[in-house]
Design goal:
Elements lengths: L10 E6 L3 E3 L3 E10 L3 E10 L4 E6 L2 E4 L2 E7 L4 E10 L3 E14 L7 E4 L1 E7 L24 E3 L2 H6 L8 E3 L2
Parallel strand pairs: 1-10, 2-11
Antiparallel strand pairs: 1-3, 3-8, 4-7, 4-9, 5-8, 6-7, 9-11, 12-13
Length: 171
């Protein structure tokens, strides 16, 4: 006798939150990766409108200038990835999946991943909270190219009991 086995391909979904925020504020977007089977990994590329949002940070995520890569692992049937953006101007900013691949707990590739998207609604706010372009790589004072000095030994002598070797912002 011949026995035939058919294995169903595992499916997964990428869902997003649709938050509201204001210009200048930071906003969190959650990416939820879920399946009816236990998940192991996700590699996804997301795109967003860089004129409306600035990528700040994210769980297992890197990028900027309109593109983010999520390269994460986890267990269970649902994995969340938190992404933080700063809102730059009023309107509705889309975050979309341009590609995604993942594996289940056995290491088998997921054959069908359904892509969702996020619509971040940005209302009026405080544009003065927006850091100048290029400030992401700046100093701890929020300015690019320096603007700080090391605290000296004499500073430590003036403030006994409060040793500090970090940076101090200067006017």
């Amino acid at each position: 006798p011949c026995i035939t086995m058919v294995a169903d391909a595992a499916e997964a979904e990428l869902h997003f939150t649709d938050p509201d925020t204001t210009v200048g504020a930071e906003v969190d977007v959650t990416v939820n990766y879920s399946s009816s089977t236990s998940l192991q990994s996700l590699n996804a590329t997301l795109t967003y409108d860089a004129d409306m949002l600035r990528f700040v940070s994210g769980d297992s995520a890197s990028g900027g200038n309109g593109t983010i890569t999520i390269d994460g692992t986890g267990g269970g049937s649902s994995i969340d990835f938190a992404l933080k953006f700063q809102a730059l101007k009023e309107g509705t900013a889309k975050i979309e999946v341009s590609q995604a691949a993942g594996t289940d707990a056995t290491g088998a590739e997921l054959d069908d991943i359904t892509f969702g998207s996020s619509a971040v609604t940005i209302g009026p706010g405080d544009p003065s909270l927006i850091a100048p372009e290029g400030a992401e790589g700046g100093d701890q004072c929020g300015r690019s190219g320096g603007g700080y000095r090391r605290r000296s030994v004499s500073d430590n002598e003036r403030f006994p009991g409060r040793p500090y070797s970090g940076r101090i912002c200067q006017g």
